[in-house]
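Service request form, structural biology core

Requester: graduate student, group of Dr. S.
Request type: structure prediction, single chain
Budget code: on file
Notes: please return the result as structure tokens.

Sequence provided:
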Amino acid sequence: MPALLRTTLALLAGVVVTFFTISAVEQLGHILYRPPVGLDLQDSSAVSAYLKQLPAGALLLVLAGWLLGIFTGLTASTLLAGRCRGRFALAIGSLVFLGAVSNFYVLPHPMWLMALSLIMIPLVALVCWWALKKRFSHSEVATEGENE
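Core staff response, request fulfilled:
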């Protein structure tokens, strides 16, 4: 398979894994912190009132989903591509970052969650990229040493 096609497909798979992970963690949050019966999700004022009364644990679970999504998506794309690419971290981290910002724009969130998210999302993308790059560079060196 040509390298460009393999890289593109790996990135697309990583994005899918990222958003699947985020959705799964958010579904867990909906199970642990059930919305009130009869909540009309089409009524923005009712949703805003519900979000304002959520405990910090529910909000931290949303952040955890975003961060875990970055980790799983970046790992999946790296494994599928066979090497760690900075563009994977940039693309996946940027998509999660933009998703979080749009979420903040549409729904009310506490200031502490917005600040923590805007710091942690790029940081986790960078740290995951660095760790995967380091991990894959060690495995490539070990493989080259065995072939000699």
